[in-house]
Specification:
Helices cover about 55% and strands about 10% of the residues. It contains 3 helices and 2 strands; from the N terminus they run ββααα. A two-stranded antiparallel sheet has the order 1-2. A hairpin with a 7-residue loop joins β1 and β2. The longest helix has 27 residues. It is flat, with a radius of gyration of 27 Å. The relative contact order is 0.08.
Length: about 120
């Protein structure tokens, strides 16, 4: 997105209601600023590593036991519930009150979800 080069100027008009209008004037004298894109190579490495591990996980998915798939889906469901019900609704919006065992359960699976 290009930087804004307009300035708002207050103009008094001689309209019947004696209103004041704001008019945008373009300042063509200023050249747009040059921005330098800087790569954060540590972040590029981490994001690339996540994708490589994901591809390896897809490969290993065909050689794992059915119990591993069931366990993974249970973890997926519980961590998803903990993000929406725990971190979002309980702690962010304070939408409801929960007793300590439920709070601990939501906290643990929220950590599993890496949120």
């Amino acid at each position: 997105m290009a930087p804004q080069t307009e300035t708002l100027v207050e103009r008094h008009t001689t309209a019947p209601a004696e209103t004041t209008a704001l008019v945008a004037e373009t300042n063509h004298a200023e050249a747009p600023k040059k921005y330098k894109i800087e790569m954060v190579w540590w972040n590029v490495f981490k994001i690339s590593l996540i994708h490589v591990i994901g591809i390896y996980g897809i490969y290993e998915m065909y050689y794992s036991k059915w119990q591993t798939h069931v366990f993974g889906n249970i973890i997926l469901i519980f961590s998803g519930i903990s993000v929406t019900a725990g971190a979002h609704r309980l702690w962010c919006h304070r939408a409801y009150k929960a007793k300590m065992p439920l709070r601990i359960f939501l906290m643990i699976f929220n950590c599993v979800a890496a949120q």
